[in-house]
Amino acid sequence: MSEAMELKQHAIDYAQQIPNNVNLSNDRVLQRALEQWQPRFLNWWHLTGPADTATLQVYLRTAISVDRDGWANFGYVRMPEYRWGIFLTPHDEDRKISFGEHRGENAWQEVPGEYRSTLRRIIVTQGDTEPASVEQQKLLGKTCPSLYDLRNLFQVNVEEGRHLWAMVYLLHRYFGRDGREEGEALLQRRSGDENNPRILTAFNEKTSNWLAFFMFTFFTDRDGKFQLAALAESGFDPLSRTCRFMLTEEAHHMFVGESGVARILQRTCEVMRDRGVSDAGQVRAQGVIDLETLQRYVNFHYSVTLDLFGAEVSSNAASFFASGVKGRYKETNLSDDHLLGSDRYAVQEVEDGRIVEKSVPALTALNARLRDDYTREIQAAVDRWNRIPEKFRIPFRVKLPHSGFHRKIGAFAGHHISPDGQLVSSRTWEAEAARWLPSDSDHEFVDSLMGRVVDPGMFANWIGPPARGINGLPVEFEYVRFD
Ligand code: BYC
């Protein structure tokens, strides 16, 4: 066999193995970068992805094109053989930058030299969260409450893997050698590692049980939605188009979180009604999660996620916006001048022992604004949760804590603020923390409920079944096969 033929035989069939709409089979530079990176990615997946799952057949959705039919392609897959693809929403030649000092100019198809390091930093920060969340969820499969939930966990995991691919595509394609180095570093950092942790705080926390997983996908994945939406407005068109496609997948992750918590609420309320119990200890004795513990998990995950928006007042955010790199939520739908030169925005901070409201230049308050947009959407979903205890006539309502509660980043960092927004002393904080945040014994209790349920159609005692199955299939479908 000639050398050329041999090479051809060994060459990767890119369109088949890496479904894409970036013309990968004709892009030698990108191919070479991915040839190096792909085996390392698989190695990372084996080491830190879902534990002991290489041989399982999972009923997954795989994106094979950006068309309606192509991005929701369902079938059984072994996860290491998942076809992690590279997809951007189609190119709009007329797209203009819609905000900041470049407003009205053509969107950039290449990285402008002056914004290169800013864009790289943002893409790396975004990319870093994706493998981090997979690492955080590594062991959850061992305690799944049902096959349906196990499949959803794995769907979330492979899509986070694909989102890492999306960011690595941008780094490889547009940032040359430093992009390749950053792509490598994304596989080196580890969630929670003392020496080489993930970049953002929330991604170094543990997700050790399914209550935490549902809270994470509800609260933290939704930060993902809002950050991606802001980046989808970017003047750097490939970033914008990449994020737009990622947003189509993000919706499922948030659904997993919202419906997961709703099913827990439903089950707890049913047990409280049927067995006539209301005290937390009695509720726990029935093998379900008491509402007080659920509230403490809400307090934790909401506050940790608010930190992901960065400081309320941020010169970084101002310069991202002014330079056209990162917009506001739904920027193109807003009806102001998209420059924010003289606009003001109200933020809260602590002054002389009190929480006060201050008006600051809107340009500097863009993190606070995005966070406020996020909180509005979260509150609407919490209101939906609260219809469940209401239906059961149980006088409990999930409540979001004050935005200053338990914060490590921004204006409230270093202050102790109670869930209802009172500034409190360190002593009060120490005394009350176990009432406000999940304690070790709360985690132990929730962990103790986690057993493995893998009979099709069966669910753990602490969670209700979903309203419907996946892709029109029944709830009792065999979503994961173990043979
Ligand atoms: N932890 O001016 P500041 C997702 C740093 S989630 C640690 O306040 P800025 C997903 C900051 O980097 C979405 N460090 O903030 C969800 C800066 O450092 P330098 C992820 C933090 O820059 C679930 C300094 O503090 N995407 O997709 O305006 C599963 C001062 O910063 C933190 C993005 O975040 C923190 N929490 O905004 C899977 C979008 N906060 O530069 C996936 C990209 C701040 O002084 N990132 N710092 O060294 C960004 O747009 C911005 O980096 C941030 C921070 C919004 C995060």
Fold and architecture overview:
By secondary structure, the protein is mainly alpha-helical. The protein has helices spanning 3-10, 14-17, 28-48, 116-136, 147-174, 176-188, 210-231, 237-275, 280-285, 291-306, 315-322, 366-391, 426-436, 440-449, and strands at 57-62, 73-78, 344-351, 354-361, 480-481. It has a three-stranded antiparallel beta sheet. Residues 1-10 have low confidence and may be disordered. The structure holds benzoyl coenzyme A. Residues 122, 125-126, 129-130, 133, 160, 200-201, 220-221, 223-224, 227, 307-311, 314, 316-317, 326, 367, 409 line the site of benzoyl coenzyme A.
Distance between the termini: 39 Å
Mean pLDDT: 95
- Distinct helical segment count: 14
The general outline is globular
Distinct compounds present = benzoyl coenzyme A
Residue windows where pLDDT falls under 50 for at least 5 positions: 1-10
Oligomer: single chain
Radius of gyration: 23 Å
Percent helix: 40-55%
> How are strands sequenced across the largest beta sheet?
2-1-5
Order of helices and strands: HHHEEHHHHHHHHEEHHHE
β-strand percent reads 5-15%
Structural class: mainly alpha
Main β-sheet: number of strands, strand sense, barrel status?
3 strands, antiparallel
Beta-strand segment tally: 5
